[in-house]
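FW: tagging you since you asked about this chain on Friday. Here's the raw sequence from the shared folder, copied in full. Didn't touch anything.
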Amino acid sequence: MAQAIYRGLKEDPGNDFAYISKRNSYKDISSFDTLSNLVNFSNIIWLCVKPQVLDEILHQLKGLNLKDKVIVSIVAGKSISFMEKYLEDDVTIIRTMPNLAIEYNRSVTAFCSNKKWTTVNIIKDDLEKLWKVLELEEEKFDLFTAIFGSGPAFLLEILQVFKNQIDNLGVSDQKSEELLGELLTGTWEYFKNKKEDQTIEDLIKNVTSKWWVTQAGLEYFWKNNGSNLLGKVIDVASKRSKNLGS
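HL: got it, structure written out here
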């Protein structure tokens, strides 16, 4: 995700980037050996780490001079109040939840902060250059994370099912993926051009003839609680995000 944010923002004039990690393997970005040196270099510090190591990073940050710095976290499940326990009260903390589409300027990103001032708005504006930003109450971040943060993986899993079936047509992997892409593109265009006047339910009915092929598949989906299963996938992911903060 850190690489995706970098690629999405690197073309914006005036931005300089550096990082620190245990591997320091990204040769096109400047790196530092210590967190202290990175903090001295930075005005904005992005926390792009796994939830289980955030405590360690915050312990290290606690002893550094964070005056006039802004902390931006993309860490799933970890609240602003959790981070405030480690940092000074006057430190500005922004919590965001993008997804990997940020690399292609197509992320849907949640945003909230413990402060309201100019730099916060600048960062929000930067994120809006990378597509859609939703300023959200923090208590709703877990559900947002499950839908938009984890959503690409869930949708790709569904696409894998379709690809497996396309493979049965006897075409190459390349052709299979090409056809799957066209299916998605065509469906998106259909939805995009009709959504102002019709609901998703209406659009489904438009392509469903009673008693025929699509109807048979949908009835099996409904009979076997397919919608409930997909909803449960999101619910379980949301609860896991919430548990990360406990």
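FW: The domain at 151-244 is CATH 1.10.3730.10 (ProC C-terminal domain-like fold).
HL: agreed, and The chain has a mean pLDDT of 92.
FW: great, closing this out.
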